[in-house]
Amino acid sequence: MTTITNREIHLAQAPTGMPEPAHFSMVETQITPPADQILVKNLYMSVDPAMRPALSNGQTKVGAVMQGGAIGRVEQSANPDFPEGSYVIHRCGFREFHVTDGRDLRLVKTEGESLTTHLHVLGGTGLTAYGGLLVTGELKDNENVFVSAAAGAVGSVVCQIAKIKGCRVAASCGSDEKVAYLQDQLGVDYAFNYKTQSISKSLRAGLPEGIDVYFENVGGAHLDAACGQMRPLGRIPVCGMISAYNNKGARSEGVTTLSNMIYNRVTMKGFVVYEFDHLREQFLSDMRSWIADGRMQYSETIMDGIEQAPAALIGLLQGQNTGKMLVKLADDA
Amino acid sequence: MTTITNREIHLAQAPTGMPEPAHFSMVETQITPPADQILVKNLYMSVDPAMRPALSNGQTKVGAVMQGGAIGRVEQSANPDFPEGSYVIHRCGFREFHVTDGRDLRLVKTEGESLTTHLHVLGGTGLTAYGGLLVTGELKDNENVFVSAAAGAVGSVVCQIAKIKGCRVAASCGSDEKVAYLQDQLGVDYAFNYKTQSISKSLRAGLPEGIDVYFENVGGAHLDAACGQMRPLGRIPVCGMISAYNNKGARSEGVTTLSNMIYNRVTMKGFVVYEFDHLREQFLSDMRSWIADGRMQYSETIMDGIEQAPAALIGLLQGQNTGKMLVKLADDA
Predict the structure, then answer these.
(1) Does A269 touch chain B (CB under 8 A)?
(2) Which residues of chain B are within 8 Å of residue A269 when distances are taken between CB atoms?
(3) Which residue from A153, A304, B71, B159 has the highest number of Cβ atoms inside 10 Å of its Cβ?
């Protein structure tokens, strides 16, 4: 039993607005993994908008290590389900090493693709997009789809699945570079920068027939504009509301157009990714084939070293990423 | 073929806020019903919140006769499906007589109950409450239910069905008299006057475990308070948003708590009563048995004469009614 030096990120103080570096602290611990446990060396960790509400609603305790998805390599194992050298996904990111009996691990089997894809297109954010759009959103071929935070890890997959299904897609994002990425790289029909364009007018221009499915990642003004333009029997799968997460109680800007839900019989439905666990095999099969034939692109923004994890989360909340925001914790060696 | 004098209410001008008498006009016409048609003498007409948006969104044309549910007696008929003396329901209220080939009529078979009940507990508002709560709201026994506009025609039926299903019921209304009616007559567990009490605090007091089903009739501040207190897998069937109907575009006060829909996986769903047409026989059977055993009470506010129809609609929008707002158009003679 060797003792290992481990660094981890703790919540130092619960933020009330946009998190700042001072809300986090890096703590060094010594780990001596018992022989009957599994030692995982984390290689990459995922940074997700949903981490923000957990900092203020008591889910992450002040003084405790942060939680988040990560992929690691098994360094030492007494469990034949997770042999040494295998790759595993778990929820204990924000630390360099993870010691576990294995019950919280899921084995990752790569088929030539990069490890990091299992934290986005082939992982949680991919499955979120896939299930949220096809199951919660009940997407039908050739519908009119609006996606917000469309250049993010979830939004970019939603846009591309909708295009694969023959839909017309409008997409919002927060910079002109992202507009170009969405239109030129991902094939979105109409992308716009919500910081410089009217959301309502952009939606009327991009989806003149109205919206069948609004994949909601932002909330507030986005939802206010979109809900007023929903078509009969429209669906709004609610994946996230990043515009609200830095506000007390995760309150968004006021949404005033909900009465359109009545006569147009619109359904708005919150969901979380674990609802789609039973679809994982079909999801992996579909996504791998779409990646192989070039119809599913992805982008990564990778920051280096666990000391960058707070900055990565803050950057994500400020929209600095295109595609998936990751932190590299160690070389795969 | 006799010529009959008929009075009807037209929309004179589309209102932009609360309707006023000057927005309506009464027009006298002469009718000579062809021998192959059905002449219906309207006895009572229904007055409903949903009539308000129709005045501003172009559904009711300026200069045209208003639309709305009514019950009448067949005075003259060439159609054996609707013999003279039978009672019929149709959508051509706001006039004293209705001439039709019968395709827009539904025969009413009374079983001892008053005719007017077929315009509320046994009619459209009753079926709205029944389907909205049990089908759209997927009510389960013993849940925690919040009903807004609870002393109205729909809300009062929702409260009582929820009580019949063993639920704990909180209810909002706009006067202390209605609070007493809801608690003392209808058996609501916790009623409050939203004009004098905080909606959020009242909900925490009345439903301390949170809300499983919020039957939405009001929108705006009501939804803002309720959505923040929804329990996991909660449902919000959206029947109406009367607080918004006098605003441009039927915009409500801002709702800021929708992010609670995500982690609690809440569903909000707009519906209209025609979705439940296939349930009408079961609905009538259930409601008649509940009325017979005293578990389904109802109240009517009846104004007299077609010239009162605009005042009845304005009064409804101001909350003057308890239970169903009706206008009596003629004696059943």
Answers:
(1) yes
(2) 261, 265-269
(3) A153
